[in-house]
Design brief:
By secondary structure, this protein is α/β, with parallel strands linked by helices. Helix content is about 45%, strand content about 15%. The protein folds into 2 domains: about 110 residues, Rossmann fold, CATH 3.40.50; about 150 residues, Rossmann fold, CATH 3.40.50. It contains 10 helices and 8 strands.
Length: about 270
């Protein structure tokens, strides 16, 4: 029996939902070596049978049934894939049946509904939020700060930009960010643009050795990347956050998903992704 585990993410649409939910479950098994296979747009019996053949080949080769995470809506396609030698975890079927029974309403059985562009208000809001974040990245567009839902502050390379992008793309939140460097002076202060939006500020801090490693990859053997400068900037950043009573989170060992959700919760922000 193979020491690695083969996982299939199968969908008649993009497969984003199957991948996201499946990955959340798989994080509970950190010591398992995974071989991930993504099969989106399985929207015909011909494609379904081809996937079944592939799954069965994996079973014969590894001597263990692979696991399937699926979001197949069409009954005929789901039944066909269910014939494979695999453990099939269906994220839609059982829940849809319960909703149909409870509400006494038949579902639409529409493929790709979770990510359809027909949901224009939410989709357009996420795109607008993304454009806003790009326009206010790293201290740009400070005149747009009054439109922000949140403004992240922290030293350079502490994770502000990826967090802002995640907040925009997944929550539809207008997230700006301001990077502090030693150009801001020996002791960090709030510039006028940030003072006006004091209630929107949220800080990111990071361990000095981790910051040193990140900066060294970007600009090796520079003062910017030196451990001494990283320690100095982080001390000044921490002093500012405590002095101004700005909420913050240590981003050193946290994922962008966890950081973003913490910000949304602590700041009481309204998600616009649904």
């Amino acid at each position: 029996m193979s020491t690695s585990k083969t996982i299939f993410f199968i969908s008649d649409g993009t497969g984003i939902t199957a991948a996201n939910v499946g990955h959340s479950l798989l994080t509970q098994f950190p010591n398992v070596q995974l071989i991930k296979q993504f099969r989106p747009f399985i929207d015909s019996l011909e494609k379904a049978r081809a996937v079944v053949s592939e799954i069965n080949s994996v079973y014969q080769k590894e001597g263990e049934k692979p696991v399937l995470f699926t979001t197949i809506v069409d009954d005929s396609l789901r039944n066909e894939i269910g014939k494979s030698h695999a453990i099939m975890l269906d994220f839609f079927h059982g829940f849809i049946q319960q909703l149909e029974t409870h509400w006494q309403i038949s579902s639409s059985s529409r493929i790709g509904g979770a990510h359809a562009l027909e949901n224009n208000p939410a989709y357009n809001m996420r795109i607008d939020a993304l454009n806003y974040t790009l326009s206010t990245d790293d201290g740009l567009g400070y005149q747009l700060y009054p439109q922000a839902d949140v403004i992240l502050v922290g030293v350079s390379r502490s994770g502000k930009t990826p967090t802002c992008l995640y907040l925009a793309m997944h929550f539809g939140i207008y997230a700006a960010n301001y990077a502090y460097t030693e150009d801001d002076g020996r002791y960090f202060e709030l510039p006028p643009a940030l003072k006006k939006e004091r209630h929107k500020l949220f800080g990111l801090i990071i361990a000095a050795d981790h910051l040193h490693a990140i900066r060294s990859k970007r600009k090796p053997n520079t003062d910017y990347a030196s451990l001494a400068r990283c320690q100095r900037e982080l001390k000044n950043m921490n002093d500012l956050l405590l002095r101004e009573k700005i909420p913050f989170i240590d981003a050193t060992v946290r994922s962008v998903e966890e950081i973003s959700t913490t910000i949304v919760t602590q700041m009481g922000l309204t998600r616009r992704d649904v």
